[in-house]
Design goal:
Layout (H helix, E strand, L loop, with lengths): L3 E3 L19 E5 L4 H9 L3 E2 L8 E3 L4 E4 L8 H8 L4 E4 L3 H10 L9 H12 L3 E8 L2 E11 L2 E9 L4 H15 L4 E5 L3 H5 L3 E3 L1 H11 L12 E4 L4
Parallel strand pairs: 1-2, 9-10
Antiparallel strand pairs: 2-4, 3-4, 5-10, 5-11, 6-7, 6-12, 7-8, 8-9
Helix pairs in contact: 3-4
Length: about 230
């Protein structure tokens, strides 16, 4: 296994099965963040992740963190909170604000650089990248964004500026996604937060098998049309 240098003149990626074991899943470096290359990567179970100042790094970890949306873990405290939620949740109303929130609202730093923001904006304009927004009044207090692959949604990042805001984004999205035929959410790498919400790990091989099938399936034609998904009661 060796790290592959990508060419700017070819969209070809090496097989994900050839990714390094340490660091887990590192597959290639270089290339660019053009829409065509990003889409080719997601279709093959590969995603970019790199620190500011580093070359573009491409990953396909084993195991892979995923969430079956119908198995979202709704804790008792979150259920009580959501029953009286002060938040309004929308879909594709403010993609730019969400990705910029993911870039800036992180004490540990971020990989969402201006280059990444520009690249995913282009994917959004082409209808492949989408955002879920959480509002308190007119203020954006949380959200998440990702890339659609048929009935699979590749979650990229989320942020929260108020209590339970990012959890609300995922809870409401999972409900809408499941009811519309959505099957799987890719969480990439398991962490404490996503694990608490029901995310688990499966093998890379199983993830790639699921991806191959689910990316060929379709959600309703109007699923990604900007919409209000949840409004507070009372």
């Amino acid at each position: 296994m060796r790290l592959v240098q990508l060419s700017r003149h070819s969209l070809a990626f090496p097989s994900p099965e050839g990714a390094l074991r340490e660091p887990n899943g590192l597959l290639a470096l270089g290339g660019d963040l053009s829409p065509s290359r990003l889409l080719m990567a997601y279709q093959r179970g590969i995603f970019p992740w790199f620190s500011p100042g580093d070359p573009i790094l491409w990953w396909s970890p084993d195991p892979r963190a995923i969430l079956w949306p119908e198995r979202f873990h709704l804790s008792r405290s979150m259920k009580r909170f959501h029953a009286h939620s002060p938040y309004r949740v929308t879909l594709n109303h403010a993609f730019g604000q969400v990705i910029e929130g993911c870039a800036s609202d992180r004490a540990e730093g971020t990989w969402v650089t201006p280059e990444v923001i520009h690249a995913y904006h282009r994917l959004h304009e082409l209808g492949y990248a989408h955002s879920i927004e959480v509002w308190q009044g007119d203020d954006l207090v949380g959200g998440m964004y990702g890339v659609a692959q048929g009935t699979l949604f590749c979650g990229e990042s989320m942020f929260s500026r108020a209590v339970n805001a990012s959890k609300t984004a995922l809870l409401v999205f999972c409900d809408r996604f499941t009811r519309s035929g959505g099957k799987l959410i890719d969480c990439q790498v398991l962490n404490e937060h996503t694990a608490s919400l029901g995310a688990i790990e499966i093998s890379r091989h199983e993830y790639l098998t699921q991806l191959a099938a689910l990316r060929m399936q379709k959600l309703p034609q109007n699923f990604w049309v900007p919409a209000t998904l949840f409004t507070p009661q009372g």
